[in-house]
Specification:
Small Protein B, Chain: A, two-stranded antiparallel ribbon, seven-stranded antiparallel sheet, alpha+beta, 9 strands, 4 helices
């Protein structure tokens, strides 16, 4: 059984250098899990913080589940991430460095059935670095297209 990817943060790969990745569980309510299973999640503006020995995910948007009854939660409420204490301490040390932040890269369901978030320990890219990565991506795409055209002409 494979993982079921629910949402990816494509913008994070463009905006940040990803130094490290870590998998974390996420504390959700019942209707939120149903909404996540329906892929109604956005990680675009989300970030994580370490507060009082706990890791919190802010601004992740989970749309309200229509059949959720009366127990509606705010779609962008802070959600606690589930990590071991040593992992939290390590993340806290890394985030204290200047310019380092925790960004969710993707959300998925593990083979065990639990919702997981892949966090990236990231530093921001400068404008010229973003332009260089766009240039490299375009060159690679043109190169692959030229190879495909070459074999198509045969």
């Amino acid at each position: 059984m494979d993982i079921e990817i629910v949402a990816t943060n494509r913008r994070a790969r463009h905006e940040y250098h990803i130094k490290d990745r870590i998998e974390a569980g996420i504390e959700l309510t019942g209707p939120e899990v149903k909404s996540v299973r329906a892929h109604r999640v956005s990680l675009a503006e989300a970030y994580a913080t370490v507060e009082d020995g706990e890791v919190w995910l802010h601004n992740m948007h989970i749309a309200r589940y229509n059949a959720g009854g009366y127990a509606h939660q705010s779609p962008t409420r802070a959600r606690r991430l589930l990590l071991h204490k040593r992992e939290i301490r390590r993340l806290e040390r890394e985030v204290q460095q200047k310019g380092v932040t925790l960004i969710p890269l993707r959300m998925y369901f593990a083979p065990s059935g639990y919702a997981k978030v892949e966090l990236g320990v990231c530093t921001g890219k400068r404008q010229y670095e973003k332009r260089e990565s766009i240039k490299r991506r375009d060159e690679k795409r043109r190169e692959e297209q030229a190879v495909a055209d070459h074999y198509r002409k045969r």
